[in-house]
Amino acid sequence: MRFVNYVAAGVAVLALAACAPSTAPAPAGGDEKTGTLRVWLFDEPNRAPKEKVVGEAIKEFTAAHAGVKVEVAYIPTTPARHEKFKGAFNDPASSPDVAEYGNTDLAEYAAAGGFADLGPQLGNQDLTPDLLKSATVDGKQYGLPWFIGIRALYYRTDVFDELKLKPPTSLAELTETARTIREKKPDLYGIAVGGEYTFGALPFVWDAGGDITTLDSPEARKGVKAYTDLLTDDICPPQACVSLTGGKTVELFAGGKAAMAILGNFNRSAVDAGAAAGKYAVVPLPGSAPGSIAPAFAGGNNLGVLKNAAHRTLAVEFVKLLGGKAYQTKMYEAMGNLPTLTGARDELAAKDPFVKPFLDTVAAGTRFVPLDPAWVKIDNSKVIPTMLQKIATGRAGVDAATAEAAAAVKTAFGRS
Amino acid sequence: MTAGVTLGRRAVTPGRRAATAGGRARPWLYLLPAAAVLVPLFGYPVYMLGLLSVFDYRQAQVSGGQPSTFVGFANYATLLGDGRFWEVLLQTVGFAAALVLATLAAGAALAVLMTRTGPVPRTLLSLAALGAWAAPAMTGSTVWMFLFDADLGLVNQVLGLDGFNWFYDRWVTFAVVGATIVWHSFPLVMLTLYAGIQAIPASVLEAAALDGASAWHSFWKVIVPMLRPLVTIVVIQSVIWDFKVFTQIYVMTNGGGVAGQNTVLNVYAYQTAFGSSEYGLGSAIAVVMTLVLLAFTLVYIRALRRGGEGL
User: Fold this and answer.
1) Does residue A15 sit within a domain?
2) Is residue A175 located within the same domain as residue A220?
3) A341 is a domain residue
4) Is there a domain that residue A118 lies in?
5) What is the CATH code of the structural domain delimited by B73-306?
6) Average pLDDT in the A34-41 region?
7) pLDDT value at position A31?
8) Count of pairs with CB atoms under 8 A, one residue in A, one in B
9) Which residue of A has its CA nearest to B169?
10) Same domain, yes or no, for A125 and A258?
11) What is the predicted pLDDT for the residue at A22?
């Protein structure tokens, strides 16, 4: 029995010692003016050009600041990035000063209190309001938008020429063209769309006047229907297309198995490396009104300064340099990343015709996911893919599936 | 097996109850080494899991953006009120039951086969089984996924089913993933039962044969009853494994299949806890899973004892 008592006593001590789950200490930043500035940037499949541009920026920065070194770590873009960032927020010793992060992660990081408000220091920037919004939560700007990725409609010029088709100028035309192509060339998908391609589907919803927060509205339903109408046997058969992600549609188009696809400016090199190389052109994704452009998702990465940063002033200056016009332009030349600064984009449009459809899309207005930690939940629990897949497989009608998705979205917001 | 038998016998020795206080402490003393390992490694995580499940604990709370608050059983209420949870729970129970049956059938059949074949086929069979056993779940799932790939998979090429998507229909998907899981888990069952059969005295089987029992009869009437303690362990282990299946589903169906039709409880818990950063709610799911498994194990052992068999 004595042992029982000891065990009971031990359990009681443990229970007292840990009466609540532990929480990280309050952020402890600093403002040292010398030392090593630590920077996290995302790793890329082809990192060398990025590293070169960043190296130039570091050289310029250290030349202007005596006694300062810059140390760059490249972190993965896989979901493991969340663990890295959570670690940096929880432990000042493992926190960098500056970090690149995806703008869809912003709300979650802001809610976690990980990044510092840079609004006052950055001042007036050459950004469109849409883009500024992609770095702002509750009026606080948690970083400088560094580059954006915009999706537009890639199409096969050889197939269109052969079948005497014109690039579609409205969604109805897009659907019709896709159907004609598959009818005439059954081994091609009319357009590669996927049930798990959230950012391919959202422009249809936005164009119809719906949004992620109102998926069961008549407008959103119209958009969802327009997208899922493409996931049919006579365009992109559900059997093959229902579980495709955005990345898989890139493979299909690049591999020459699809006549059209909704791809980003950042997919250019992948397409150029495939069978479709040299046989494609790009136009903005049309909206339902003839001649209009469907609003694209303004995905991209921001440069932020962490609350735990030990060199706050230096960090902000480094962000201003690397996120400035000169280096944004260099990053486009090196990596194809579209600049966020309007001035830099205008110069580019004059130089490189490839970016024109993407820039036209930006000019027509871009949209963004809800700036709320709920988005991460909606995204991770696959609310939108589940909705699309249920409709495409015929397991639920548009009304039922959108109602269910809207309920899931509401729950996600309710709990955050 | 012998340990099982001894334990069973000791359970019916009421005379010992009258021992001194020192004698009563003795079993605890014997348990101490095991407890020293199990309490920190098993007890503490379970305790933390239970603790987290009664808190509102999300990413903002982990990184200190917001204070964590005690919410009592609110996480459990959310969970039990969620239709999706029940759907996934039922699906998991059904899938696990099918897997346990399939694993036991395959393992037992091959174990008997091993006792009947010559040394060369036996060695080949054990090597193949060991290979399947040694393959990490991640690797095995990826390889099977490639085998069943719609465009480039070997299965489709051999069967001439170009472009057939094995991961489209719910039941076909479960069948393919289930086959992978059985392939991963039958070797343990097979080798355990084979070792058990080898330990059955040849004279017993010989006597049965002389009495005119067919192979089928001597399997069900002689081998199975004698292997009961082993079968119990193998069943419990299979149930626990198959109920907690994660990797194969997560990898092969890309996190739950078309519209989440192939989600099982562990994948659901993972997506809730880590995907959605709902650590409190995720812990509640894990606690429920632990309780379900515990309940099953206890009921199963009790049923065996009632039936006159000791573990």
Assistant:
1) no
2) yes
3) yes
4) yes
5) 1.10.3720.10
6) 92
7) 82
8) 115
9) A239
10) no
11) 62
Q: Is A395 on the interface with B (CB under 8 A)?
A: yes
- Least CB-CB distance to A1: which of B24, B167, B259? B24
Q: Of the candidates A3, A14, A90, which has its C-beta nearest B62's C-beta?
A: A90
Question: What is the secondary structure of chain B as a DSSP string?
Answer: -HHHHHHHHHTT-GGGGG--HHHHHHHHHHHHHHHHHHIIIIIHHHHHHHHHTTEE-BHHHHTTSS--EE-TTHHHHHHHT-HHHHHHHHHHHHHHHHHHHHHHHHHHHHHHHHHHS-HHHHHHHHHHHHHHHHS-HHHHHHHHHHHT-TTT-HHHHHHT-TT--TTSSHHHHHHHHHHHHHHHHHHHHHHHHHHHHHHS-HHHHHHHHHTT--HHHIIIIIIHHHTHHHHHHHHHHHHHHHHT--HHHHHHTTTTSGGGTT--HHHHHHIIIIIS-BHHHHHHHHHHHHHHHHHHHHHHHHHHHHTT---
Do A24 and B62 count as a contact with CB atoms less than 8 A apart?
yes
Q: Mark whether A57 and A191 lie in a shared domain.
A: no
What is the structure's pLDDT at A213?
A: 92
Token pair listed for A401: 């599936």
* One domain for residues A362 and A396: no
Q: For residue B75, give the chain A residue with the closest CA.
A: A415
Give chain A positions within 8 Å (CB) of B17: none
| Nearest chain A residue (CA) to B30 | A3
Q: What is the Cα–Cα distance from A187 to B111, expressed in whole angstroms?
A: 48
Instruction: Extract the runs of DSSP E, i.e. beta strands, from A181-272.
Output: 260-264
CA distance A80 to chain B (A): 11
Nearest by CB to A381, which of B165, B254, B276?
Answer: B276
Mind telling me how many Å the CA of B233 is from chain A's nearest CA?
A: 28
Q: Are residues A378 and A232 in the same domain?
A: yes
CA-CA distance, A256 to A251, in Å (whole number)? 8
pLDDT at A415: 61
Tokens 């090593």 sit on residue: A36
Range of the domain at A102: 35-149+299-367
User: Across-strand partners of B185?
Assistant: none
Instruction: Check pLDDT > 70 for residue A375.
Output: yes
In the predicted model, what is the mean pLDDT of residues B182-195? 93
Per-domain residue ranges of chain B: 73-306
Whether A27 is covered by a domain: the verdict is no
Tell me the CATH number at A117: 3.40.190.10
The count of structural domains within chain A is 2
User: Model-level pTM?
Assistant: 0.78
**A393 contacts in chain B (CB < 8 Å):** 168, 258-259
Task: Sort out which chain A residues have CB atoms less than 8 A from B272's CB and list them.
Answer: 381
Alpha-carbon gap: B121 to the closest alpha carbon of chain A (Å): 41
ipTM above 0.95, yes or no: no
**Chain A residue nearest residue B162, CA to CA:** A240
Residue among A328, A211, A193 nearest A263 (CA):
A193
Identify the band that residue A191 occupies on the pLDDT scale cut at 50, 70 and 90.
Answer: very high
Instruction: Please give the residue of chain B at the shortest CA–CA distance from A391.
Output: B259
Summary mean pLDDT of chain A: 87
Examine the domain organization and report whether A199 and A338 are in the same domain. Answer: no
pLDDT-based confidence at residue A58 (cuts at 50, 70, 90): very high
Same-domain pairing of A284 and A340: no
pLDDT at B1: 37
8 Å CB contact of B63 and A385: no
Are A181 and A308 in the same domain?
A: no
Q: Are A43 and A84 in contact (CB under 8 A)?
A: no
Kindly state whether A376 is in contact with chain B, defined as any CB-CB distance less than 8 angstroms: yes
Range A166-174 average pLDDT: 94
Partner-chain residue, chosen from B51, B276, B277, that has the shortest CB–CB distance to A18? B51
